[in-house]
Structure formats: C-alpha cells, structure tokens
Write a structure and sequence with these properties.
mainly alpha; single chain; 124 residues; 6 helices
Length: 124
Amino acid sequence: MKRLIPFAAILTCLPASAAAQATPYFSAADHADAECALLLFAVSQSPEMTESEGQLNGTMAIYFIGKLIGRGVDYEAVMLEDLDRFDRVDMAALGERCSEELIALGEDMQRFGAQVQELEHSRR
C-alpha cells in the first residue's frame, strides 16, 4: 500500500522532547492504539480527503490517543517508537482493526443515547 504522507511530517505533530526520552516498555494494547492513531493521522493528511473527512479522521485519531492517556501511557513516546516501524505494518489489516473498534464504539454510543432518551422520556 502506498504511503499517504511522509512519516516525517507526522513527527512535526509531536514535541521534540519525546524523541530524546528513553524508550519505556509499552504493552500490546499501547502499540495497537498508537498504530491506529498514526494511521488515522496519516489518512487525515491524504490529498484524496476532503477537509471535513481529514478533520474527522484526525478526531478519530484523538480517540486512540485518549485511550493511551487514560492508561497513563506517554503517547508521544509510543507513537514515535511505532513510527520507526510503521512502513512494515500491514495497512489493510490495521485499517480493518481500527475501523472495527470505531464502529463498535459508535454502535455502543448509539445504544447508550437511546437509553438516555428513554430515561428522559419516562421522567416526563
């Protein structure tokens, strides 16, 4: 699969201090979330994307960064570590995995929204 943007461009989004830090241990879940964030940031910069599609993909990347932050992970360090080997990742499989997680989240949010509406309706 072709690269959508030079990966060096992604580095400009991360503070330089992250590159100088010692590499800590990251779990498989940390790497999985960082890879999804990197993929979505790359897709968001694709010239084939409309501005709104790019913004949406960037926003979805932030979801995965939020998961890392929630676990107390240095998201900059894990993303930089994964960026070093990102060109060896099966992009189709990665895209499928990340999409499945986002679809499941969207379905769960719709289910929860329906529950909230039902609760509000029952209180009237």
